Fold:
Amino acid sequence: MDCDLPRLRHAKDVEFRQTVEQRCQEDAFLAANALLQFWKYFDVSGAEFEGLEARVATAESVRRGQLNTRYESVAALLQKVRRMALGSLKGATDLEESLRSVIRNKPVDELAWDFMPEEVEGVRVTDVNAAFARLIDLEEQARKLLDEGKAALATRIAELFASGDINDGERQTLQKLLDSDDLATLSDWVAMFAPAKQDDQF
Structure:
């Protein structure tokens, strides 16, 4: 980039703009910013370059905002999994460590690549895509643990109702907690109902 290179032959400004736009649509902002550094070799005017640069910056800002929202959602889900002690302690810790490796609020050129390695697919380089892929994977793992915990609590509610430890109204209340994923509260209530029966027997 610092050498005095000859202008590329047959390079068209239209093709250049279309390529940068395509990278934006792919969320490949690292590639888009890399292309922009060569704008002078593609018959692109200064004004056009500034417009493209603003376009890339705006698109990246929007996607990082969406990434941040998704991150917070996954973080809340992982906290619920940890609070409920679903799965092993090491498993929950590993999930949280993997979540912390996702860098959300920094521009592409400031990212720590050892934390969030980029993926090269053909001529494309994914950046925000890699972060979204990781969040989706973490969400799926956490949701699986949560679903397993819900299934176990649903079975316990059915057992308490069948044994007469809870009446139908109480069963419906517990079911609402289950449906709303309020498993911490539900777990406390389930634990309360079972020991009460055992205390009466002694």
Q: What stands out?
A: The two ends are 84 Å apart (CA to CA). The helical segments are 13-25, 29-36, 46-83, 89-100, 128-162, 168-179, 183-201. The chain has seven helices and two strands.
